[in-house]
Amino acid sequence: MDFKLLFQTILSGLISGSIYGVLGLGFVVTYKATRVLNLAHGGMAMFLAFVALSFLHRHMNYGLALGLTALAAIAMGITIDWTIMRPLRNRPPLDAAVASLGLLLTLQGLAVIIFGAQEKVFPAAVPLRFVSVAGFNFSYPQLLGFGCVAVAAALIGVLFKWTRAGTAIRAYVENPESARGLGVSPFYVSTIAWSVAALLAALAGVMLAPLTLLDSLRMPLYSVKALVAALLGGLNSLSGAIIGGLLLGVTEAYFQGYIHVRDSVNYLPFGLVVLAMLYQGFRGNRKLVRAA
Q1: How many CB atoms lie within 10 A of CB 1?
Q2: What residues contact residue 96 under an 8 Å CB cut-off, 6+ apart?
């Protein structure tokens, strides 16, 4: 076995897996704070990537376009929370999940109406050049993407641990009744969670778009992989979503390079979803046994 090629494959998988992890963080943030499984997360990433592309087509520099996209993402998160999720707050969680699926279809339709049905090329933030580190080749977009993921994960960690909003979310998640008694509004927690999730969707969309053609159908499929990452982390762990994404990326890269079974890489996420659900069920059964 060529160990240099294997190591290069692992590193490439870590870079792609980090993007899955960022998209998976959005699932975790909304589920952790509101117990809503947001099936529209990939659609949000797609739509916000189109928004960023429209700004770039107006000859804005990359920084300004991303800044305006971030503002659009916050507005999207607040709008989704106020108009869709708040009316469903006291309904079963399945109702909100179905509503998010309807939101996904709506975003796909709006993308076709506003931006067109044709596939579009999203320009990379940095030129496609390669740098050699210890004999291994990395492209500038890969390194930039990995750096953005690291910064985003660190900022999310700081948000949840060291800010007032993060403290409110953690208090509400651990004990909603006590948190309400201390003045923590569930509406405030929900708005913050959906805004952060939309920002993460925008980041993932802008990172994924230069790696593939941008259209209304392709990017939402990546939400399946992001959901796998979140499930592998238990849907409640921010670090678990990142680790799950990295694991999926490495496994996917290994299948592409070494497992020569037709379409095996396309079935991999679904297999991992089943394994993750089995693991969650096994862990839940063990807790019930210990409690008994």
Answers
A1: 6
A2: 34, 36, 37, 85, 88
Q: For all residues of the chain together, what is the average pLDDT? A: 82
Of the ranges 135-144, 201-210, 211-220, 237-246, which one carries the lowest mean pLDDT score?
Answer: 135-144
Spell out the residues 6+ positions from residue 20 whose beta carbon is closer than 8 angstroms to its own. 222, 225, 226, 228, 229, 244, 245, 248, 249
The structure tokens listed for 82 are 């106020």
What is the pLDDT confidence band of residue 289, given thresholds at 50, 70 and 90? very low
Does domain 3-291 match CATH 1.10.3470?
A: yes
Return the beta strands (E) in the chain as ranges: 130-133, 136-139
Query: Which residue is associated with the tokens 């392709």?
Result: 218
Tokens of 214: 């941008």
pTM for the predicted model, two decimal places: 0.85
Task: Name the more confident of 136 and 48.
Answer: 48
